[in-house]
């Protein structure tokens, strides 16, 4: 049994592949029923030999609507259909407790992103206007482990 574990331990580096990924903070401006500052973090994982990629993001949307300062949590999933160029398209889905927002856009080296879409109202918070309608955003992802 010890020999078997020893062989597996020695052979494991031959079977394992390095996994490249990016992780770091993100900051963005979004206009959707008002102006919002999005602050959070992201994890970007290339797949299929760096041909495509996915990004998971958790943000806090900071907004000032109707004399109220709001912090709205948000999660998003982004799919990059290609990583072969400097400028790549993406498809993104954002979800908050109040809005579901599908988006499409362009990313420059996965650092600068411009997206637009339409937000659908899920639930309207009392004393707050619905956060829905057309949206656009300009975001910056700061990779901490790029080099």
From TrEMBL:
Signal sequence interval, chain numbering: 1-18
Signal is among the record's keywords: yes
Alphabetic keyword roster: Signal
Keyword Signal: yes
Protein name: Outer membrane protein beta-barrel domain-containing protein
Species in which this protein is naturally found: Paenimyroides ummariense
